[in-house]
């Protein structure tokens, strides 16, 4: 669980850098999160380490990630929420169809949305709700499958609005996933699921952790690379920027 947040500014390589400091009950060690919305330094609640020093100690990595996400903003898809537009679903583009129907549905090439739901809200909100519902169903199924394969138990699944952080695993066994993952290819989703379940055995990203991931997904590096290079394709709206 996250607690206090604080906006700060420092200087890296002669340039000002704005970032956010966040303290978390779940954090066991300091870490840096960088996504399309900016830089965060996450600290355990009782940590006395200097966020500025943590950023300076990881100078090259921070600047590289910052450049990557700055370029992501330039590559971000210009989403138009209207019938006939296309949005990704499980890695494939689907055309949005709005029509009178009893329920939303997805076919091989189309996402069918219920006209009456859009009349009461908006296409953007209805599509997000559709994605969230499908994400919960799909992720629950894949988590149950891989939890059985890996022989681990989890407490619960939560969907988060984490922008470009795709998953997390708390110390009490709660798995959190970004609902936008439903737009990614199935193999990429499986990688995120296995990654978080592996944290139930090994909390750190060490050799043993990657051995566990590789045991159940031998080609995980390919899917991790896809997510690293193509996560801009999973931006839902300009609110994500």
UniProtKB/TrEMBL annotation:
InterPro entries: UTP_pyrophosphatase-like (IPR053136), YgjP-like_metallopeptidase (IPR002725). CDD domains: M48_yhfN_like. Gene3D superfamilies: Metalloproteases ('zincins'), catalytic domain (3.30.2010.10). Keywords: Plasmid. The lineage of its organism: Archaea, Methanobacteriati, Methanobacteriota, Stenosarchaea group, Halobacteria. Residues 31-229 form the YgjP-like metallopeptidase domain. It comes from the Archaea. This is M48 family metallopeptidase. The keyword Coiled coil does not apply.
